[in-house]
Design a protein that fits this description.
It is built from 3 helices and 7 strands, in the order αββαββββαβ. With 162 residues, the protein is an alpha+beta fold. The chain folds into 2 domains: 1-33; 44-161, Jelly Rolls, CATH 2.60.120.1140. The chain has a 7-stranded mixed β-sheet with strand order 5-4-6-3-2-1-7.
C-alpha cells in the first residue's frame, strides 16, 4: 500500500513538474512570437529613420511575400502617426508602386541597398494608378502616412534601420 502511495505521490510530483515545464515552455514560445498587426495580421517590427542625428521610431508591418506586397495598405482607412508598412525587396530592384484601392495618402519611401533613402514619392494620391518609381535599386520600400516624412524632415540620404 505504501508503495502504491509513493508511486502515486511520485506521479503527482512529476505531473506538476511537467505541467510547470510545459507552462514555462509555452510562456517562452509566447514571448518569442512576433507581434502582429490587429487589422492585417502581418508581423510588426520596430524601424528607425535617422535624420541629422535624430532618431524617428516607427512600428511597421512587414509585407514579406508577393501576396502581402500586392495588397499592401489597400482598403485601409487609417494608420497611426508612427506606423507604416515595409516591403523588403529580395533581390533589390527598381521598384514601382501605385495607389490603386489605397484610401489614405502615403509617403512612399524608397530605401537603397545601403539602407539610405534614395527618394520619396510624397503625399501619393489615393486611388491613383500613376507609377511611382525608385531612382535606383531599392532594397526596401517604406510607406508612411502622407506628409509624415516632410513633417519630420526625413529625406534622401537618411538612414533606415530595421
Amino acid at each position: 500500500m505504501r508503495t502504491g502511495f509513493a508511486a502515486l505521490a511520485l506521479s503527482a510530483a512529476l505531473a506538476a513538474c511537467s505541467s510547470s515545464a510545459s507552462d514555462g515552455a509555452a510562456a517562452g514560445v509566447a514571448a518569442t512570437e512576433p507581434a502582429r498587426h490587429p487589422v492585417s495580421g502581418l508581423q510588426v517590427i520596430p524601424l528607425t529613420v535617422i535624420h541629422e542625428g535624430k532618431r524617428h521610431r516607427f512600428r511597421v508591418e512587414i509585407a514579406g511575400n508577393p501576396y502581402e506586397q500586392a495588397k499592401g495598405l489597400m482598403f485601409r482607412t487609417e494608420m497611426g502617426a508612427d506606423e507604416g508598412m515595409l516591403f523588403p525587396m529580395k533581390p533589390p530592384r527598381n521598384a514601382s508602386f501605385w495607389m490603386k484601392n489605397t484610401v489614405i495618402p502615403l509617403d512612399i519611401i524608397f530605401v537603397g541597398q545601403d539602407r539610405r533613402i534614395i527618394n520619396i514619392a510624397a503625399d501619393a494620391v489615393p486611388y491613383s494608378e500613376e507609377n511611382l518609381e525608385s531612382q535606383g535599386l531599392a532594397a526596401a520600400v517604406l510607406e508612411l502616412n502622407g506628409g509624415r516624412a516632410a513633417e519630420l524632415g526625413i529625406g534622401p540620404g537618411d538612414k533606415v534601420e530595421w
